[in-house]
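Researcher: Structure for this, please.
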Amino acid sequence: MTGASWRSAAVAAWEARGAYRALAGHEVFTLELSPTGEETAEPLLVLHGFPTSSFDFHLMVDALAEDRRILLLDMVGFGLSAKPDIAYTFDLHADVVEAFVADVGVTRLALLTHDMGDTVGGELLARAAEGRWPVEVTRRVLTNGSIYIEMAHLSDGQQFLLALPDERLPDTVGIDGATLQAGLTATFSPASAVDQAELDAAWELIEHRQGHLVLPRTIRYIEERRRNERRFTGAIEAHPSPLGVVWGVDDPIAVVAMADRVEAAAGAASLAKLVDVGHYPMLEAPDRFLASVSAALA
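Model: Predicted structure, C-alpha cell format:
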C-alpha cells in the first residue's frame, strides 16, 4: 500500500510515518510516534471522528509528543485503513483499538477523542468498567462529538446518508469531492479559515479504497448511539479518571450545550470553550486547541 502515486505529498508523508497492522482481522493504518523530548508522561491514544481520519491531528501531534508517545490509528472504514463492505459497529472499532493498544504493549494511557471517537472511547471505558479491557486510563480529553444524540443537530449530509440503505453504494453512484468538502466546511465556524489543502486531504482519504461508497454503512454509528447511549455516555460520565472537555463553541451539530451537560454530569475537571471555532478545532484553531488539550492533560 505504501507510496501509491495517487497520494498528495502531505498524505504520503503522514503515511510514511505510520505502519499497517493486521488488527481484529483487518488491515489498519497506525502511528506510534516517539517522544520528541524526555518521556515523562503516559502514552496518549487519539481517536478520530466521522468521516475523516487520524490525519485530522497532523498539525498538532508533534507538539503533543514532546513528553509522551502518541498512538493514532485510522479506524476500519476510514482514512488509509481497509474499507470492507460490512456492518460497522462500535464493537468492531473498539476491538480494533484494543488490538492496537495490545500490539504496542501499552497498559496505561491517556485518551483524546473527537466526534465518533468519543463514543468509541465510551465503549472502551465501559469494557474497562466490566473488567474486559485491562488498560488503565489515567485521564481523558473529550472534544466535539454528539454524545447526547437527542441534542445533536444532524446536518443535511448526515440525514441524507442515514436515509440510504445500510449497504455499499454502486460504483456508478458516488459522492463527489466538492459535495463532501462543502459538508465539512459547513461544520466549521464562520470565523474559521481552514486551508483548502486540509479539505483536499480529507476528501483524498475518504475516497481512498472507495471509502466514499461505504459512507452509508460507516454512518450507522449514529443509529447505534441512539440505541445504546447510556452505555457509551454513561461510561464517559462515570469513569473515575479526570476529564477535560475542549469544545468549539460554533459547532452546528454537536452544540456547545453538550459540553455544559457533560461537564455537569461527569464533574469534569476542566472545560475549555473555544470561541470562533466549530466542529474541527484541531484544524480550525490548532494552536488554541493544542494549548487547551495540553492543559487538560497536565
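Researcher: Any notable elements?
Model: Residues 9-297 form a domain with the Rossmann fold fold (CATH 3.40.50.1820). The CA atoms of residues 138 and 236 lie 13 Å apart.
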